Amino acid sequence: MKHCLTIAGSDSCGGAGIQADLKTFSALGTFGMSVITAVTAQNTKGVFDVQDIDPGVIVSQIKAIFCDIRVDAVKIGMVSKVETIKSIGKTLKEYDLPPVILDPVMISKSGYNLLMPEAKKTLLKVLFPMATLITPNLPEAEEILGYKVNSLKDMEKAAKDLYGLGPTYVLLKGGHLSGDATDVFYNGNDFHMFTQERIDCIHTHGTGCTLSSAIAANLAKGSSILKAVKDAKEYVTTAIHHGFSIGHGIGPINHFYELYKGAGFLLNE
């Protein structure tokens, strides 16, 4: 079995963050491990508080994994502070790294800042060049690049500019545009478009976390980068189709739909 590590924040309602990552790793047949960077107080209505983990403890978590267990892929999510980012980057450089998928989490769906403004430059300088693939959505790309992305042509330009910041590949997610959802993949030479019909479901909590961790799991299992993205998008699409309500706001996607279906147990049906 392949081993996948998530370095990210904890979501107390279980729909995003390390909880979503670990569910995804398990659903895709890999063994999940975690380094917690922050603890959030959140539910389906939003994020209400954040406690960052001491950078020294983050380093200890990373070293505890790498000194004992083979790591076949790394997913990096919420890393909100300058000190956190520097510590992660410095520590990961001590190891022969597998594929690294970086989801540059910046703002929650409810508008809570999950990346401190002063940490953005550090994220770009330290972690972007270490990433095999980055998976920003359009608001994140706009925050990074400093201009609006309003069309597919804009997305292509943005993907090139993001590539120039150092990652090996870019997957720019287009879900915030109207119409069908098209993600733009760029490898430095060519574009590849992944288009899905927009799904009429409000329960999309954890979508970005899940996509990046699914790509990591697929790469750990030996897929090419394009197949890893394609299969991850298919997994996420199914999970969104069967998203469900657990509270009074935006519910989670269904990470274990296929498992529940096989067991004859379907949520909200």
Number of domains: 1
Structural class: alpha/beta
User: Whole-number average pLDDT?
Assistant: 93
CATH topology: UDP-N-acetylmuramoyl-L-alanine:D-glutamate ligase
Classified in CATH, the superfamily is Ribokinase
Figure out the total of helices. 9
CA radius of gyration is: 17 Å
Terminal CA distance reads 33 Å
Sheet with most strands: 9 strands, mixed
Q: What does the overall shape look like?
A: globular
What is the strand arrangement across the widest sheet? 3-2-1-4-5-6-7-8-9
**From N to C, what is the helix and strand string?**
EHEEHEHEHEHHEEEHHH
pLDDT < 50 runs, ≥5 residues: none
CATH class: Alpha Beta
Question: Based on DSSP secondary structure assignment, what is the total number of beta strands?
Answer: 9
- Helical amount: 25-40%
Report strand %: 15-25%
Assigned CATH architecture: 3-Layer(aba) Sandwich
